[in-house]
Amino acid sequence: MMKQPKFKGFSMEHGKWFYGHGWFKIDWTEEYKQEKNIGDQAMLYTESSPVDCELGSMGQYTGYEDKHGNEIYQGDIVKRVDDIPITAEDGAEMYSTWTVTFEYGGWAFRNTPASPAISYPSFYSNAKYMEVIGNMYENPEYKNNPLTA
After folding, report:
1. pTM across the whole model
2. Tell me, what's a Pfam family for it (predicted)?
3. Last residue of a domain, one of 30, 57, 84
């Protein structure tokens, strides 16, 4: 039996993350947007009721957890917990970080703009060593990264 996909999305109205099953983009017409003063949104169906979420915040659950047992979602930013820091020219210690993406039919880690990493670790064998440290929605500097788009 196939599992129903699980998603998370951020609601500005409630100021928090919601988790649920199934979502879709509401394709508002420009006339309706102006009339109601709203923008594009997505709907997330939670256990209790539908919630309007910010479109850029929606992410699907990968089916994997990080080192601490936290669920890993599409758009999350992760770092390897047992990684050795890389020392930059100015002496600052930097850790490799990746964003979680879905590409070529599977989940993948992609370098972030701030990451000194030069390779992409295998998702399936490395997820358990990762730690979720944020997401692209709350860290917009990662949103426009051509490597994660």
Report:
1. 0.77
2. YopX
3. 57
